[in-house]
């Protein structure tokens, strides 16, 4: 369904619906400009068949709060298909996208489709793979609701994450510090446990959810927890069920904190698991609680169990209490699953955006690589070939590397490249188009086509002087005048920009010794470069360079969540995030998770080099673009697909990459 299911940048709102066992949970989200943030929540009973037998418009209207109703049918309008179509026609994107998660049978999905059929809308059902891949720890039967909640936790507070969901079933789901799924557990919910005691015995009382909540409120207010050795039936049932959850959850939290407390080097057994890059690091170890029983559970998960049940005494033979050994926070988040939907959609939007960028860059490479150009230096033409495109942090537009036939090199902006391509089209090779005439014609036409493409893209291209008659300069004195005299633009006929571009020329009396140059770290050109005086010599001129000075951090953990960049054998720059820190006998190591899922350990020198390179090239980082252009872009989230790297001769330290 991707990219068809992606939200559009012009959409004001999208909707999400979660089909639970006991309720439908609805949310209205803002548009991409506000990162699809959920803004309005409500819930309704599940749809009955009778709800979709009559007027669909009336049925839908009954299930919408006022804001959503006005958006769909127009302010102060009676619900009707005509009103919905009129309201849709006034929106930039008429069709409302509705994203569904279902943990029940297909009846609810079928009824929702029929319910929304009366208004301009399109429904999309999300699956587990939209939240996590199998490589990130998802197994086939893992509930999509659990995956969505875990994704929401990572989005809100970062990795590692731990989520307790108190619904019809009670579940807990955890991720490690890299955002991969550790796993979790499933058990009966509170109501199921209390009902089981009533259904399977003859004398125990029925405790409703309201009675349970009231009992917890009473106990908290009295500041006297339920005794482990209760002296009445109701308290005995309460302490049995609530104490079981509190004490078991303490063990779960203890193990999660232990497994995620310190960073560790990537184990060989975990190599098959591709790390995902979380946006944040959960340094405070915030534990999220959601679901219908979430409020009670959140109280029981506090280090002192909110004094609802007794704490285990200090010095217990079963080990230290969680509150004595660890630090964590508990947060009740009612609508966590909708934040997971938002995060999954943004991830798909970002992935599609990066694919578009990658596709355009590939097209550019195919269009410009290998093209022939001619550049004038002190009235003499020099031919060369476009060898690469440089995209860096301190330049506003890409630069084109050109390797000249005399083994010199330089870089040119798109506007400058336009001139060089057109000069080649007009003049051909400075020494004459020798050899296959058709082949030379194709080369000149290709240069012209690329120049026209640059012009179409809106670059400020200069007017290139028409070629003069072949009377000014003889290119090759050993050829006949008729064949060898080629028209060459003089200094007066070439724009000042061409005249003043700097290029080192070899000593004509000696063999060329300058090797081909493929510059990557590119200084920004001064704005006044076009107005510099013409050089009497051909020496390179210095350029103003924006210098980033690496500052070592006092605490090595302060590097966590910093972005890094590295160039590998394929000459491509790969971006990643510093996720974990560990100290070993051989020094400090930081665990890096690249955006394509690969991992690598860095030492201090690697950290310095990769952060410095990132500062130079961060404008090429899709995540940097995502955050800096939120209102106009198609944004970030799961690992992008990137060209496959050559891992031969892999660098040390558990690296899966080969450094350039």
From TrEMBL:
Record keywords: ATP-binding, Coenzyme A biosynthesis, Cytoplasm, Kinase, Nucleotide-binding, Potassium, Transferase
Main location: cytoplasm
Bias kind Basic and acidic residues: ranges: 430-439
Cofactor: K(+)
Domain of life, per lineage: Eukaryota
BP terms from Gene Ontology: coenzyme A biosynthetic process
Domain PTM/DIR17-like Tudor: 563-609
Region (Disordered): 429-453, 499-520, 618-660
GO cellular component term of the entry, any: cytoplasm
NCBIfam families for the chain: baf (TIGR00671)
Family designation: Belongs to the type III pantothenate kinase family.
Protein name per its UniProtKB record: Type III pantothenate kinase
């Amino acid at each position: 369904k991707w990219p068809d299911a992606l939200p559009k940048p012009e959409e004001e709102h999208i909707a999400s619906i979660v089909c639970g066992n006991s309720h439908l949970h609805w949310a209205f989200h803002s548009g991409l400009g506000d990162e699809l943030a959920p803004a309005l929540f409500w819930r309704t009973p599940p749809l009955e068949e009778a709800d979709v037998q009559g007027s669909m418009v009336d049925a839908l209207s009954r299930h919408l709060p006022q804001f959503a109703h006005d958006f769909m049918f127009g302010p102060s309008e009676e619900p009707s298909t005509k009103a919905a179509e009129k309201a849709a026609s006034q929106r930039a994107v008429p069709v409302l996208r509705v994203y569904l998660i279902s943990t029940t049978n297909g009846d609810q999905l079928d009824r929702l489709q029929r319910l929304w059929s009366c208004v301009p809308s399109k429904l999309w059902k999300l699956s587990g793979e939209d939240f996590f891949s199998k490589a990130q720890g998802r197994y086939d039967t893992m509930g999509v609701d659990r995956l969505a909640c875990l994704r929401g936790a990572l989005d809100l507070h970062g990795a590692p994450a731990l989520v307790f969901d108190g619904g019809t079933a009670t579940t807990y789901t955890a991720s490690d510090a890299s955002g991969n799924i550790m796993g979790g557990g499933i058990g009966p919910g509170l109501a199921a446990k209390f009902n089981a005691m009533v259904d399977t015995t003859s004398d125990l009382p029925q405790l409703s959810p309201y009675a349970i909540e009231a009992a917890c409120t009473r106990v908290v207010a009295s500041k006297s927890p339920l005794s482990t050795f209760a002296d009445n039936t109701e308290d005995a049932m309460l302490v049995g069920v609530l104490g079981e959850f509190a004490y078991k959850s303490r063990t779960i939290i203890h193990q999660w904190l232990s497994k995620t407390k310190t960073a560790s080097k990537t184990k060989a057994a975990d190599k098959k698991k591709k790390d995902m890059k979380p946006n944040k690091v959960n340094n405070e170890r915030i534990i999220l609680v959601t679901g219908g029983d979430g409020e009670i559970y959140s109280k029981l998960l506090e280090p002192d169990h909110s004094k609802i049940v007794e704490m285990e005494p200090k010095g217990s033979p079963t080990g230290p209490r969680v509150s004595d050994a660890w630090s964590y926070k508990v947060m009740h988040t009612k609508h966590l699953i909708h934040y997971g939907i938002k995060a999954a959609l943004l991830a798909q939007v970002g992935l599609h955006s990066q694919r578009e960028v990658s596709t355009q860059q590939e097209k550019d490479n195919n269009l410009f690589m290998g093209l022939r150009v001619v550049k004038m230096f002190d009235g003499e033409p020099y031919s060369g070939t476009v060898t690469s495109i440089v995209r860096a942090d301190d330049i506003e537009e890409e630069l084109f590397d050109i390797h000249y036939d005399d083994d010199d090199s330089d870089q040119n902006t798109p506007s400058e490249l336009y001139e060089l391509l057109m000069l080649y089209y007009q003049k051909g090779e400075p020494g004459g188009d020798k050899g296959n005439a058709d082949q030379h014609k194709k080369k000149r036409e290709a240069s012209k086509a690329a120049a026209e493409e640059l012009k179409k893209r809106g670059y400020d291209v200069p007017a290139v002087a028409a070629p003069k008659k072949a009377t000014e300069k003889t290119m090759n004195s050993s050829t006949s005048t008729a064949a060898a005299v080629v028209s060459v633009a003089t200094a007066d006929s070439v724009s000042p920009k061409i005249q003043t571009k700097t290029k080192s020329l070899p000593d004509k009396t000696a063999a060329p010794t300058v090797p081909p140059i493929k510059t990557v770290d590119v200084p920004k050109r001064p704005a006044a470069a076009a107005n510099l005086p013409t050089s009497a010599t051909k020496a390179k001129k210095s350029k103003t360079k924006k210098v980033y000075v690496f500052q070592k951090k006092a605490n090595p953990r302060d590097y966590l969540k910093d972005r890094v960049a590295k160039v590998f054998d394929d000459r491509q720059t790969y971006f990643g995030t510093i996720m974990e820190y560990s100290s070993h006998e051989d020094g400090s190591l930081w665990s890096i998770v690249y955006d394509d899922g690969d991992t690598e350990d860095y030492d201090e020198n690697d950290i310095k080099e990769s952060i410095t390179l990132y500062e130079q090239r961060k404008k090429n980082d899709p995540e940097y673009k995502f955050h800096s252009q939120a209102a106009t872009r198609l944004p970030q989230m799961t690992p992008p697909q990137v060209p496959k790297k050559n891992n031969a001769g892999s660098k040390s330290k558990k690296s899966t990459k080969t450094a350039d």
